Amino acid sequence: MYSPISEDVEWGGVKPLKDPTYEFAEATVRRGFVRKVLALLCVQLSITAVTATVFVTSQTVKTWFAANPWTLWSSLAISFILVLILACSEQARRTHPTNLILLFTFTACESLLVGSACASYDAKVVAIAVLLTAAVVAGLVLFTLQTKMDLTSMGGLLFSLTWTLIVAGVLQLFFRAPWLHIGICAGGAALFSIYLVFDLQLLMGNEELALSPDEYVLATLNLYLDIINIFLYILQLVNALTKSSDR
């Protein structure tokens, strides 16, 4: 008979052995973790979708927010602060119900920002972007479920690509070339698609790195931001390509 725990320096002194009972319990906990994260994510995306729909379809709402820009600037500031809190404070994102209050306050603020962004585009462009985003996300989920590629070990590369995108965005402020804007939008959508696969693998826990089941708020936040960024880049890309084809 052997103990299900063995000494291992990399695991802080202990590492579970391949015990069937342990593996079954771990898999059960992981499935519950995934269900909780996906449920929270669906609520977040629903709130954002409803808010964006109101912005796109209601001229009254557009006019009011245009006349009161402080609401959007406040939402931007609050969103930024809440992301920092949730990303940096383990206590804040693990303490219930504080973590959910912070998460959904962030969601409300971010939904206003996404809604105001959508209001700047034609409803047809927004609808196309939504459908394309849904197709991309569905495809990436299927890819994640069947791929043997481990993206959780590529955090350094993703960080470098993120900085490349930021530098390109700064260059765009000085060079107003349409091709540069289209390239940045396509690159941004591709980058956050990779981030989505990365975060899905952290969620499912089948690769080298995995999130603890206690980090359900962080996991939800990561996936939400990935999907929102994919949508916003696709929205800009569709709009830019539509304008180019109309010329």
Describe the SSE topology.
Layout: E1 5-6, E2 15-16, H1 20-57, H2 59-67, H3 70-88, H4 90-94, H5 98-118, H6 123-146, H7 155-174, H8 178-204, H9 216-246
Antiparallel strand pairs: 1-2
Walk me through the structure.
- It is a multi-pass membrane protein.
- Keywords: Membrane, Transmembrane, Transmembrane helix.
- The chain is mostly helical and 247 residues long.
- It has one domain.
- Helices cover 79% and strands 2% of the residues.
- The protein has a two-stranded antiparallel sheet with strand order 1-2.
- Helix 1 packs parallel to helix 5, helix 1 crosses helix 9 and helix 8 packs antiparallel against helix 9.
- The longest helix is centred in the first third of the chain and has 38 residues.
What's this, in brief?
79% of the residues lie in helices and 2% in strands. The chain has 247 residues and is mostly helical. It is globular.
